[in-house]
Amino acid sequence: MSLAFIDPMIIRSLNKSKLRKKILYLLYKMYPHGIYLSEISRRVRSDPSNVLGCLKGMNGRYNGHFSLIELGLVECVERGGVKIYKLTDYGKKIVEVLKDQDSDFIESLRW
């Protein structure tokens, strides 16, 4: 199923942050399973606080309105006291639409 329309705020959010895009593509690779914060951080090679900012928003640097969770692309599920982040079905559809446009970006990622 393809999307006829992608919210411009999603495009803006992903274009403003390579880290948001990396996290989104990592979670797409893990779909339908989730992954915890420190593992995301390790795989995208970024500080956990920056990863959390991309996922949930952070004062100043990462606007909460453009966070992956706020945009409906990622969800946080708590299992046994551990927060697991996973791509939503909507997030999966967005990535599938965008991945052809981002083929050069995807090839540059080294998991």
List keywords for this structure.
single chain, 111 residues, alpha+beta, Arc Repressor Mutant, subunit A, three-stranded antiparallel β-sheet, 6 helices, 3 strands, globular
Description:
- This protein has helices at residues 8-16, 18-30, 37-44, 48-56, 89-98, 103-108; strands at residues 35-36, 74-79, 82-87.
- The chain is α+β, with helices and mostly antiparallel strands.
- The protein has a single domain (12-22, 34-108), classed as Winged helix-like DNA-binding domain superfamily/Winged helix DNA-binding domain (Arc Repressor Mutant, subunit A, Orthogonal Bundle).
- A 3-stranded antiparallel beta sheet has the order 1-3-2.
- The longest helix is centred in the N-terminal third of the chain and has 13 residues, at 18-30.
- The mean pLDDT is 87.
Helix and strand arrangement:
Blueprint: H1 8-16, H2 18-30, E1 35-36, H3 37-44, H4 48-56, E2 74-79, E3 82-87, H5 89-98, H6 103-108
Antiparallel strand pairs: 1-3, 2-3
Helix pairs in contact: 1-2, 3-4
